[in-house]
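Late entry, magnesium ion complex.
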Amino acid sequence: MTQEKQAEKLQAIKGVRDILPPESALWNRVEQTARDVFATYNFREIRLPVIEHSELFARSVGIETDIVLKEMYTFPDPTVVADRNFLAGMRALRDLHDAYQKNRGYTIARAKEYVAAAFAGLSEGIERAASRLTSLRPEATASVVRAYIEHGMHTLPGDVKLYYIGPMFRRERPQKGRYRQFYQIGAEVLGQSDSPNIDAEVVEMLMAYLERLGLRGTTLYVNSIGNAECRPKYIEVLRQALQSVSARMCEDCQGRAITNPLRVLDCKVEADQPIIEKLPRITDHLCDACRAHFSAFQEQLKQRGIAYEINWRLVRGLDYYMRTTFEITAPGLGAQNAICGGGRYDGLVELLGGPPAKGIGFAIGTDRLVLSLQEVGAGNMKAERKDVTVPVTGNALKADVGKVFIAWMGTASYPTAVKLARRLRAENFIVELPPEETKLKKSLGLADRLGAHYAVLLGEDELASGSYVLRRLADGEQKKLPEPELVGYLKSDRRP
Ligand code: ATP
Ligand code: MG
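Prediction complete; structure with ligand written out below:
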C-alpha cells in the first residue's frame, strides 16, 4: 500500500469529530461554568461508565424508541458467544448436518434428538448472550438511576442531586448539530418529593447557567404528559382519533398510530401538521393531580421571572418521562435547534428494580450549545484564550465552604426563600432550599447532615420584620439580620 493510500484510510469515523484548539477552550468554559453554577444549587458530579448492559436502555429508554431500536452501538460479550450451551447447540446442529449429508445413520428419530439438543443449547446460549449484550450509552439518565440503585443512594440525606458531563453515542444520520458521538451536560434530582418546586428550581438552574454563558435568544417550552393514571387514557383517546386519519399521514405515523401514538406528535412531516393540530390534546385530558402539578410548576416559573411557552406536542423521545417535560431551543442552529431536553421520570427507579423514588432531570447537548454560542457571538475566542491561562477558580474547588441551608416555614415565606437562594447563588454560595415545607428541627438536622455551615431561618415573623435568623451550625450562634446585611455578613464570614 502506498503512503498516500494509507493516509487516506486513516480518518475519523463517520459522524464523529475532533474538537481542536482554540475551540476546545470554549468547550472548557462551557463545562466549567456548568460545574460552577450547578454547584451553587448543591449538585455534585457523578462519573459514569460509557458502556452498560443493553438491557438497561431497553428497560428505561424503551424497547420501541428509535434510540434503542435503531441507534445504539451494541456488541456481544465475547465470552458469552463462546458459551458452553451455545457451543453444544452448534455442535448438535453440525452433527445433524453431517449425518444428513453423508446419510450415515440418519433417521427421523435421530434428527429429532439432534434438533432438540440444538434447540436447548442454542436458546439458552442466545438468551444468555442477549442478557449480556453491551451498548455504548446513548444517554445517561438510565446510568444515573442504575448507579443510584446500585449504591443505595436513597439512604443519603435529602434529595440526591447529581450532574454528569461526557460523550454519548447514537447511530444517527450525521448533519449540522447531529453527530454519532456527541456530548451532554446533564443533571438529575432523585428523592422522595415530586413537588413542582423542584421542577421549577431545576429549570431556574438551567436558565441561570445559559445566562452566565451569555447565550441569548433561547426559548423554553414546557408541557405535562400526565402520569400512569391519565396518560394511558389519553393515549387511548389519541389512538381512537388516529384511526380515522392515520391513513392520510406519513408511513412512520401510520406505524406509530398503532405501536406508540404519542410519538405521532413528534412528527415533522409538513403534510401531517394540519392533521396533528386537530388531534386531541393531553392538556385537556390530565387528571386533577397532574393538572394541579402542571399549573403549580408554571406558577413557580412565573414567580421566578422565567418566560416559557406551552407546547402540547412536547412528548420527548424516551419512554420514561411523565408529567413535566421541557425543551430549550437556541438561535443559529437550523433544524437541530434543541439544545436541551428534560423532564420528570417518577417511576423509573422502581422500574429498574430500586425503591420507590421520584426523579427529574435534563440533558444539554454540548455540541449544539457551543455552536449556538459561536453563532450569537458569545463564543469569543479571545475571551477563551484568557480562560486557558487562568487557573480553575470555580466552586468545585471550594466545595466545602459557604454552604447555606434555607429553612423556610409557612408557604408565604417560600417566594422570599427562593429570592434569597438566588441572590446567594449569584454570590457563589452553595444553597440548599428544601422544596417542601419542613419542621424546624428536621430542617436543622438535615442541614447538619448535608454539611451546611449556616442555616437561614425564614418564617412568618422573619417575613413580617424583613430580618432573617442566621444560625451558624458549628456552634449554634444566631443573629437576626436584614437581607442585605445577611448577605454581606455571610460574604465576610466565608472561610478562605
Ligand atoms: P433531537 O430531537 O434533536 O433528536 P433528542 O430528543 O433525541 O433530540 P435528547 O435525547 O433529549 O434529544 O437529548 C438531549 C439533547 O442532546 C438534545 O436536546 C440535543 O441538544 C442533544 N442531542 C441529542 N442527540 C444528539 C446528536 N445526535 N448530536 C448532537 N446532539 C444531540
Ligand atoms: Mg434524537
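Confidence is low (pLDDT under 50) at residues 383-397. Will revisit in the morning.
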